[in-house]
Design a protein that fits this description.
With 277 residues, the protein is mainly alpha-helical. It is 84% helix and 0% strand. It has a single domain (19-269), classed as Orthogonal Bundle (ABC transporter involved in vitamin B12 uptake, BtuC), CATH 1.10.3470. It is built from eleven helices and no strands. The chain is globular. The protein starts with a helix and ends with a helix.
C-alpha cells in the first residue's frame, strides 16, 4: 500500500517532458529568487512589468523588420530598461510615474505596429503564457547559463547594490558607482525577464521575480535571510505548482503562481509576528 502510494505521488515525474520542465524550473527559480530581492528593495516591480510587456513591441518590430523576434525582443527590452534608468536619474518625477509613462508607450507602440501589419499574432501567445512543458535540452542549458551568470553578477555586485538600496550617500562614500550598478542591475533584470519569458511567459516570469522575494522579505528581517527564503519559496512553489498542474490537469504557469502566492500569504503571518517583537 505504501509502495503504491509512493508511486502515485511521484508519477508526475515519469513523462520525460515533466522531468525537463522540473529541471528548467529548478534552474530558473533561484535566478528569479535572488534577483527578486533587488527588485523588491529597489521598488522595481512596475519596472519588471514594463520590461515584460515590451516583449509585444519587440516581437512586432522583429516581424516588421524581418529579423529574429528573439533578438529583437531582447534588444528592445534592454534599450527600454536603459531608458527608464536614465530618465529616473535626470527627472524629478517618481520611478512609478516614469515607468508608467513608458509602460503605456511600449504597449501602445506594439499595438500600433501590429494593427498596421494586419492580423499578425505569431509569437504573441507564447510570450504571454509560455510553455515550460515544451523545453528541450538546449533550453535547459540556456536557463542554466542564466543562473550561472546571475551568480557571478551577484558575487560582484550584491553588497554594492544592497548599500545603494539602503543609503546612496553611504554608497558614494564607499566609492560605489551608483549609476553604473543601477544600470547593470536594470539590464540584467531585463535580460532574465526577456529570456525567461520564452519558456514560462511574461505572467509567470514577473510573478517569480516578485512573489517569492516578497515572501522572503516577510520571512526574514535580514537581507541575506530574505534572499535565502526567496530562493526556497521560488523552488518549492515551482515544484508544487508543476506537480499540482499535472494532477489537476491545469496550466502550469498559473498553478506555480498560485503556489507561490500561498507561501506569500503564510509569510504575512510571520511578518505580523515580527512586527510585535
Amino acid at each position: 500500500m505504501i509502495i503504491l502510494l509512493d508511486i502515485s505521488i511521484f508519477s508526475w515525474l515519469e513523462p520525460p517532458f515533466m522531468m525537463r520542465a522540473l529541471f528548467a524550473l529548478l534552474l530558473l527559480a533561484p535566478t528569479c529568487g535572488i534577483l527578486g530581492v533587488h527588485v523588491i528593495s529597489r521598488k522595481m516591480s512596475f519596472f519588471t512589468n514594463t520590461i515584460s510587456h515590451s516583449t509585444f513591441t519587440g516581437i512586432a518590430l522583429g516581424l516588421l523588420l524581418g529579423i529574429s523576434t528573439e533578438w529583437s525582443t531582447v534588444i528592445f527590452g534592454v534599450l527600454i530598461a536603459i531608458l527608464i534608468i536614465n530618465l529616473v536619474g535626470k527627472s524629478n518625477l517618481s520611478v512609478d510615474t516614469i515607468t508608467g509613462v513608458l509602460f503605456s508607450a511600449v504597449v501602445s507602440l506594439g499595438i500600433v505596429i501590429v494593427s498596421a501589419m494586419g492580423s499578425v499574432t505569431e509569437g504573441f501567445e507564447s510570450a504571454l503564457y509560455g510553455d515550460i512543458l515544451s523545453v528541450d535540452k538546449i533550453d535547459i542549458i540556456v536557463i542554466g547559463t542564466l543562473l550561472v551568470a546571475t551568480l557571478v553578477f551577484e558575487l560582484m555586485g550584491f553588497n554594492k547594490l544592497i548599500i545603494i538600496a539602503i543609503n546612496e550617500q553611504m554608497a558614494r562614500a564607499h566609492g560605489i558607482n551608483i549609476k553604473l550598478w543601477e544600470t547593470l542591475l536594470g539590464i540584467w533584470v531585463a535580460v532574465v525577464i526577456l529570456i525567461g519569458l520564452r519558456f514560462v511567459g511574461l505572467i509567470l516570469i514577473t510573478a517569480m521575480l516578485i512573489v517569492p522575494a516578497a515572501a522572503g522579505k516577510n520571512f526574514s528581517k535580514s537581507v541575506g535571510g530574505a534572499v535565502g527564503w526567496s530562493v526556497i519559496v521560488a523552488i518549492v512553489s515551482s515544484i508544487t505548482g508543476l506537480a499540482g498542474s499535472y494532477f489537476l490537469n491545469s496550466a502550469t504557469g498559473p498553478t506555480v503562481i498560485l503556489a507561490a502566492t500561498l507561501f506569500f500569504m503564510v509569510s504575512l503571518i510571520f511578518s505580523k509576528k515580527y512586527s510585535k517583537l
